[in-house]
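**Reference record**
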Amino acid sequence: MILITGHKGFIGKNMMLAFPDARGYEWGDGDVDLDGISRVIHLGAITDTQCESWPALMAQNVTFTRDLLHACAERRIPIQIASSASVYGDGPMFKEDAAVFPQTRYAKSKRMIELYALDRDWPMPVQIFRYFNVYGPHEEHKSQPSPFTRFRRQALETGTIEVFENSDDVGRDFVPVSVVVNTHRRFFDLNLSGVYNLGTGISMSFMDVARLVARETGAKIVEVPMPKLKGYQWFTQADMTKTNAALNSA
């Protein structure tokens, strides 16, 4: 049986649908029960990239993950951990062995647990995935949904898509959640540990997403002033060489 932490979240819901015999866990559920568990997919975390509460980030993103790692090690249970492309910061390289420049407290919390996991020898596979911009079904409740979801919602509700000024210059590697789920599944069979990018290797601007949704819905695109955001990434594009090599080795 698989344990999926953060199973009520966007990616967690898709994981639960893909693995119907999985058991879910959410922050605050009490002690993690690993009885009968053969694998852990650890998604649970504070995912607000603008979160400023360091105590909360430490408790949920770092300390909990550290303790879960050791609990899995005691039972030799393989674990997959969700990290984030935000650890790259401004880049310019988006390759697993490149220097990283986390700008926000959220990104720093993710990098801390990466380093903790990488600096130790574990008796089981520890696979860490740096998610790029994931989108797809069940993200409607998110406070920060992908532009695909946000723009479609605006188009249906108001007939207008609001895009930040200069969005032609802001690029992201948008990866469907189905690809994320399938990559996790395929890594089950790999006796590998380490950090792996999880994206598409292709970058697309926010304005291009808006144009795509506008063509689908007939909505009008309106540019609005961009708010000040801490640690904002202007461009991301996963180097998928390492991940694809691992998958092709199976």
